[in-house]
């Protein structure tokens, strides 16, 4: 407190000692959320650091987060963009990193009305069921052959297929090379986008490819672009055919609609072909690895906590009576499963840091915050704070079952906001809250999950935007309930 009061005279948050030119960059490891956590433990819930010449505020306190993202939301509705992120969004032409304004509002409306709103999600329910069945069948086959499965990799194929079928009627899992392109692209993009690259922060290093990233980024973008060009051509040809046959255009998907906006020269928004591609790319980047990695972390926690696994299994078996595969409509009857997902997102938030940037000078929490200051909200640290959670490193879904603390995950509760908050909160929350628990439940219901050694899985993290595991979970799934023998 003394530290803060002292600093309040200068109207800036406490700051660790810094070095010339690089500022505090030397204190940031490859896992920035862990470095920020360490700094917060030492210097308090709000700190100021300089990454090179860029002023940043780091916080992991719910009270302070509310001050920034609710009470001063208008100033903090832009995101911080690194050079890698700019490159990966066709020069900031997508949605995820678009500055708040008319263009962003247009994309948000499009996203909610054509892809992620309740009506479209209902419409695509059969598609999600098919993807779950395909996934379970694949696990079963591998299990029968005694083959170990790269659980995270297969989950990423599942979530990629779901998004690509919803957005552009394309089943990437049916075409191995497309599936591989998207899988690799999403993983590489998350890794490179999550790097704290020196050239982002030190102006005279701007044109230096210090960490050899540009070459890799170029490779990713070329592969994605070639694939998208082909998919767009197919869509345009199909649309022409429908028009020639005089067919009603009722089968339009998000990509068809984006292409129409692009072709409409008199529309309120000018929408280039690069905008179309960048938007689709953003959906893959924001919506697939996040969900897949959450399911993978949840499985690891269940393997390491057999009593939790057993309780979840009993809940699922009671609902399905061991006579059918679990489905989305069962979710309201599965409070323990939902608590497992929340507990996973608390300890392993797959967007560990929310990065925003001020558009104007402002005063927040008594501190002067100049325009362009970067705000890092450390969700990972918040989930491990002993002042907020009892024994935070213990995986205890029961903490989310208590009647008196109802944790909403949609950004109303600043202690727990894995999907962010406010106008820039995650638009895919509803989809994620269907896909993650349903597929996790299918994995719990249908298989026994055994790992080699002492039966415990290592919990190390790897650097990236989406908190991947350092060591992929490799398992041979042993069938426990065969939903296909029931003619499902
Ligand atoms: C477990 C899964 C997921 C997690 C943990 C997650 C988390 C987040 C977080 C923390 C943000 C930033 C929010 C903020 O700044 O306040 C975000 C933004 C976003 N998410 Fe998700 N997300 C998930 C799944 C999805 C899915 C399935 C989609 C849909 C395809 C999606 C699409 C997006 C988009 C487009 C944004 C940017 C919104 C904007 O800038 O206005 N996410 N997500």
From TrEMBL:
It comes from the Eukaryota. Its cofactor is heme. The keyword Phosphoprotein does not apply. One of its GO terms (cellular component) is membrane. InterPro entries: Cyt_P450, Cyt_P450_CS, Cyt_P450_E_grp-I, Cyt_P450_sf. It is found in: Membrane. It is a single-pass membrane protein. This is 3,9-dihydroxypterocarpan 6A-monooxygenase. It comes from Vicia faba (Broad bean).
């Amino acid at each position: 407190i003394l530290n803060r009061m002292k600093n309040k005279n200068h109207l800036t948050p406490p700051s660790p000692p810094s070095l010339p030119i690089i500022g505090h960059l030397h204190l940031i490891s490859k896992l920035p959320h862990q470095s920020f956590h360490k700094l917060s433990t030492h210097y308090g819930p709000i700190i100021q650091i300089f990454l090179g010449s860029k002023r940043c505020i780091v916080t992991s306190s719910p009270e302070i987060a509310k001050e920034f993202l609710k009470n001063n939301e208008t100033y903090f509705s832009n995101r911080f963009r690194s050079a890698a992120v700019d490159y990966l969004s066709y020069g900031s032409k997508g949605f995820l990193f678009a500055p708040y304004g008319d263009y962003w509002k247009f994309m948000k409306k499009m996203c909610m009305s054509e892809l992620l709103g309740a009506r479209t999600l209902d419409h695509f329910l059969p598609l999600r069921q098919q993807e779950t069945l395909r996934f379970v069948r694949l696990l079963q086959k591998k299990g029968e052959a005694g083959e170990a499965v790269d659980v995270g990799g297969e989950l990423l194929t599942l979530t990629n297929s779901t998004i690509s079928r919803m957005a552009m009627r394309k089943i990437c899992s049916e075409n191995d090379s497309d599936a591989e392109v998207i899988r690799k692209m999403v993983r590489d993009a998350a890794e490179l986008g999550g790097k704290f690259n020196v050239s982002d922060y030190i102006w005279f290093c701007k044109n230096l490819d210090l960490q050899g990233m540009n070459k890799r980024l170029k490779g990713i973008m070329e592969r994605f672009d070639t694939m998208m060009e082909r998919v767009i051509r197919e869509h345009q040809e199909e649309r022409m055919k429908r028009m020639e046959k005089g067919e009603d255009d009722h089968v339009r998907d998000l990509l068809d609609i984006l292409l129409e906006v692009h072709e409409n020269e008199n529309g309120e928004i000018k929408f280039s072909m690069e905008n179309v591609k960048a938007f689709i790319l953003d959906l893959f980047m924001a919506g697939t690895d996040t969900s897949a990695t959450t399911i993978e972390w949840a499985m690891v926690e269940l393997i390491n906590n057999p009593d939790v696994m057993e309780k979840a299994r009993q809940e699922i078996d009671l609902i399905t009576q061991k006579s059918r595969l679990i489905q989305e409509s069962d979710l309201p009857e599965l409070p323990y499963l939902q608590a497992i997902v929340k507990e996973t997102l608390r300890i392993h938030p797959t967007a560990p840091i929310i990065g925003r940037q001020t558009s104007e000078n402002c005063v927040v929490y008594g501190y002067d915050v100049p325009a362009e200051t970067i705000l890092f909200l450390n969700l990972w640290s918040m989930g491990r704070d002993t002042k907020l959670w009892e024994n935070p490193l213990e995986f205890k879904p029961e903490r989310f079952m208590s009647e008196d603390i109802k944790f909403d995950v949609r950004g109303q509760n600043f202690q727990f906001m894995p999907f962010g908050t406010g106008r820039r909160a995650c638009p895919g929350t509803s989809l994620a809250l269907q896909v993650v628990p349903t597929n996790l439940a299918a994995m719990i219901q249908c298989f026994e999950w055994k790992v080699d050694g002492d039966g415990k899985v290592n919990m190390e993290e790897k650097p990236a935007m989406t908190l991947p595991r350092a060591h992929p979970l490799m398992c041979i799934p042993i069938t426990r309930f065969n939903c296909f023998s029931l003619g499902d």
